[in-house]
Amino acid sequence: MIAAILLIVLLGALAYLAAPVLAWTVGIAAWLAALQFVFHCPVPVAAWVVFAVVAAVLNIVPLRRAVFTGPVFGVFKKITPAMSQTEQEAINAGTVWWDRDLFSGKPDYNRLLSFPDPKLTPEEQAFIDGPTEQLCGMIDDWKITHELKDLPPEVWQFIKDHGFLGMIVKKKYGGLEFSNYAHAKVVTKIATRGGTAAVTVMVPNSLGPGELLQHYGTEAQKDYYLPRLAKGVEVPCFALTSPYAGSDAGAIPDYGVVCRGSYTHPRTGERFENVLGVRVSWEKRWITLAPVATILGLAFKMYDPEHLLGDKEDIGITCALVPTEHEGVEIGRRHFPGGSAFMNGPTWGKDIFIPLDWIIGGREYAGQGWRMLVECLSVGRCISLPAMSVACGKLTTYTTGAFARIRDQFGLPIGKFEGVDEAMARIGGFTYQMEASQDLALTALDNGEKPSVLSAILKYHNTERMRKTLNDAMDVHGGKTVVLGPRNYLARGYQAVPIGITVEGANILTRSMIIYGQGAIRCHPFVLREMKSAMANDGAEFDKAITGHINFVISNFVRSLWLGLTCARFASSPKGGATAAYYKRVTRLSSAFALLSDMAMFSLGGSLKFREKLSARLGDMLSGLYIATASLKRFEREGAPKEDIAVMSWAVENALYDVQVAMDGFLANLPSRGLAWVLRRVIFPWGLTLKPASDRVGTKVARAMMEPGSTRDRLTHGMYVPKSEADPVGVLEHALHAILATEPVEQKLRKLTRDGKFKAITARERLAEALQTGLINQEEFDAVTRARKLKRDVIMVDDFDKKLDQHDEQLLQRLIF
């Protein structure tokens, strides 16, 4: 009996620790020897022979390859799905970081907590406090979106003069050379004031000519264009998306054929004859800044049928820089995306000749465009849209929290009704998650990483949370944000939500194909090694990878069972107190995720690529683990403030609950029902035990949003808050403090009214009567009068003359006729 228990403990320990094959061999040999010589239980010679044969096969590499891994290698090469060039380049682009730990089943929390905290330099902070603050003060979003349909000329000039278009450009070229963290915080602050200005600043610093030039441009291209981009002399756009190739950007129909031709340089007027170049035709749509761009970044497929450059005919996707004044280039028309006024429109051209030296990076980078774009996208997708989403979270947290405390119904602030406080908790909790997730990814960027998987997680989950926070904020505000006008600070963002959902990889595609599709290959410790060895026909490397992979699966199987049976109570945690249990739960779910991932690949093989619903759920698991750990990292980074325990708990508990929901859905739909049955008993031996954050925790989050305090300050830190009472956002803080300060007097007045102490009917008249009869003093009268005025300013909506303005009349005429 003791020997059997020792065997179980030994095997469990070896499996849990993912011990190498040699350790298994030594351990089992030691147990057999102990069985015979310590416990005096004779071990049959046949058992020793079987053990020796198995040990030899597993430990002697040539024998193992001949008997086991070699045949497996042959099968693996046949069943591994073929990858297109664009898929290979997408997978190879970028780097893996903390996401790899989450895929391992054993996250190293000391590593997580040791990542440096993102910080602004004094220069970056001064820019945010100075020019960025000034720019926000110049923005009148209603005037921009409703009247001008554009930024005012003085705002355009301010953006150019102060280097907003060159935040990422290095100082030696005249740019600001800000960190990715600073870039994101500038965009966030502007976006809390107006989306049009934020997008205008964001795009040139994200996926565009500036980013591509700095990484791949020739020295001549850098020396000419980067100083002009930094100072706003050039306004760039990048034309990738085609009407016929949106999400499948690699299938763009735009093409260029290598040939000899002639052209006149659009800026110098110099004529060039018989030059080697490319004759390009394109039709692009949805290109931000295209209507006003001076330089067009252009992606097209390049062909060389006459072999003027070499033996290859299909050269591949290529990126070029084309001055928009070049003969034949068409820009100027525009789209109106989602009620926003940022410049966005089509561009097209037919048989336009450009020289080879207009290719970004020159002739050597012809055909390298897709790799260039994907690598830069992994950076841009961590910054732009996630920052806009964080801005939305901050704005909705700030405005909804204040409004829900100021606005009352049935004698109570509306935020104290549980239905409203439930919606508010989501706003505050999602805001905490969004900023935590982005800040952790920005840490990676500023330390030289290009986290392509994390960028996809951020793009999808931050924009989806933006959508949810805006929906909840609109519900809480009710009629206040239904009516368009200068007082409505949410409706334009609400209208523009589909833009963020759609661009830079549509969210449906990102969730169902990209997050796990890239993550499974890039982050898994062994899958990419196995695939590369198959493509290279390297049996020796495959042998190392597959034996490690098998060990990895066994380890996660045993670990998942143990953590499930014990509910991770004995798992290690780097911290005590409020967060200890959360780290343990992440370990449990990370191990289960690694196991489910391997079982999905084992049972479905190459068909997993087409099982998008299952792939999406696996992506949800990875995303939830990332969001939970990012929230924990944020809590520690901010000093683990006790005031933030509720919002941190909401963020982590709901993220982990989302992981459990995804696992449950995955197991319910895994085609191999027998395997699903086993996995469910291993991972959830006691059933689905995780719960979302409790109502009590949610109420704490909502109350923190409604009261001035450190939690509310941290959630809204970095947004632009106008100081004027005349501003629809600025008035909220004044009204909130005034309402809180006069609440005792208002309660006194309500009691006097109930007791029949007033002859007056209206609230205004009763207030005057209270002053006249000495029930309140002049100071109290003045404070209540001011608070009530501010409250009215907060509640009121805009109204207009019933006669339509000229623009609306023209629009109506077009609709009718």
UniProtKB/TrEMBL annotation:
<keyword id="KW-0274">FAD</keyword>
<dbReference type="InterPro" id="IPR037069">
    <property type="entry name" value="AcylCoA_DH/ox_N_sf"/>
</dbReference>
<feature type="domain" description="Acyl-CoA dehydrogenase C-terminal bacterial-type">
    <location>
        <begin position="521"/>
        <end position="800"/>
    </location>
</feature>
<feature type="domain" description="Acyl-CoA dehydrogenase/oxidase N-terminal">
    <location>
        <begin position="141"/>
        <end position="232"/>
    </location>
</feature>
<dbReference type="InterPro" id="IPR015396">
    <property type="entry name" value="FadE_C"/>
</dbReference>
<comment type="similarity">
    <text>Belongs to the acyl-CoA dehydrogenase family.</text>
</comment>
<protein>
    <recommendedName>
        <fullName>Acyl-coenzyme A dehydrogenase</fullName>
        <ecNumber>1.3.8.7</ecNumber>
        <ecNumber>1.3.8.8</ecNumber>
    </recommendedName>
</protein>
<feature type="transmembrane region" description="Helical">
    <location>
        <begin position="33"/>
        <end position="58"/>
    </location>
</feature>
<dbReference type="InterPro" id="IPR036250">
    <property type="entry name" value="AcylCo_DH-like_C"/>
</dbReference>
<dbReference type="Pfam" id="PF00441">
    <property type="entry name" value="Acyl-CoA_dh_1"/>
</dbReference>
<dbReference type="Pfam" id="PF09317">
    <property type="entry name" value="ACDH_C"/>
</dbReference>
<dbReference type="InterPro" id="IPR013786">
    <property type="entry name" value="AcylCoA_DH/ox_N"/>
</dbReference>
<keyword id="KW-1133">Transmembrane helix</keyword>
<keyword id="KW-0560">Oxidoreductase</keyword>
<dbReference type="InterPro" id="IPR009075">
    <property type="entry name" value="AcylCo_DH/oxidase_C"/>
</dbReference>
<keyword id="KW-0812">Transmembrane</keyword>
<dbReference type="InterPro" id="IPR046373">
    <property type="entry name" value="Acyl-CoA_Oxase/DH_mid-dom_sf"/>
</dbReference>
<dbReference type="InterPro" id="IPR009100">
    <property type="entry name" value="AcylCoA_DH/oxidase_NM_dom_sf"/>
</dbReference>
<comment type="pathway">
    <text>Lipid metabolism; fatty acid beta-oxidation.</text>
</comment>
<keyword id="KW-0285">Flavoprotein</keyword>
<feature type="domain" description="Acyl-CoA dehydrogenase/oxidase C-terminal">
    <location>
        <begin position="367"/>
        <end position="514"/>
    </location>
</feature>
<dbReference type="InterPro" id="IPR050741">
    <property type="entry name" value="Acyl-CoA_dehydrogenase"/>
</dbReference>
<keyword id="KW-0472">Membrane</keyword>
<dbReference type="Pfam" id="PF02771">
    <property type="entry name" value="Acyl-CoA_dh_N"/>
</dbReference>
